[in-house]
Structure of Phospholipase:
Amino acid sequence: AEADRVAVEAAAAQAAAEAQAAAEAQAAAEALSAGNTPAGAKATAASLASSRYGWGESQFSCLVQLWQKESEWKYTAYNDNGGATGIPQALPGSKMASAGSDWKTNAATQIAWGLEYINGSYGTPCAAWSHSQAMDWY
């Protein structure tokens, strides 16, 4: 009887652990899915632009316009004419692997890469946007 009770408790504990793991996986998938929408991507970008680079609302406004033009904030964006990929339209898209191996499926990884690219190449989103308006690329 004791062995049966222990076995039942162990099975219940295992089932509870599996249910907890499934719930956590579902929550992570939902968070990624929400972050991968244009609205979620913009929220991620606003947070990272501020926390990593100190860019405020005026710079974020330029970033919104730039990436709206480039990709409409879609992490799946792909330009057939040249192969530019993702929200920041990295060319080639594989450049974004420097920000994470999930660059094909995670808007946050693309955004992190894109913000670093803008910072290194132009200094600010408004400078990148000005270049884009003048040259039709950034």
About this structure: The two ends are 73 Å apart (CA to CA). Residues 1-35 form one domain.
